[in-house]
Design brief:
The protein is built from three helices and two strands. Strands 1-2 form a two-stranded parallel sheet. Strand 1, helix 2 and strand 2 form a beta-alpha-beta unit. The longest helix is centred in the C-terminal third of the chain and has 18 residues. The model has no long low-confidence stretch (mean pLDDT 89).
């Protein structure tokens, strides 16, 4: 109960990005483990789909051999390189 009662639908509606996609405007990078028991793949699929419908940049990668978090070195390296590329494309250099 560190964040609240996750069995309460109204609580989940308040905190889940699924119910707030209309408020997302920034590009999003989603890395999802195909074996994640905490976040269903359908939920990640839905957010990515909704963002694409709104023409908001989204990069969505599923690692079928991972769960909630990445533990395999090859996947960690792959995702880290994707994060670097994503940030280099979407961050603005304000020093110029």
């Amino acid at each position: 109960h560190r964040i609240g009662d996750v069995n309460e639908d109204s609580f989940n509606c308040r905190i889940s990005p699924l119910f707030h996609v209309d408020h997302i405007s920034a590009p999003l990078l989603i890395g999802h483990g195909g074996n994640d028991v905490r976040v269903k793949r359908a939920e990640a699929d839905r957010i990515a789909f909704e963002m694409k419908l709104k023409n908001i940049p989204v990069e969505y990668i599923v690692y079928p051999d991972e769960g909630h978090g990445f533990g395999r070195p090859a996947n960690m390296i792959d995702f880290a390189s994707r994060v670097e590329m994503f940030l280099s494309q979407h961050l603005v250099d304000v020093s110029k």
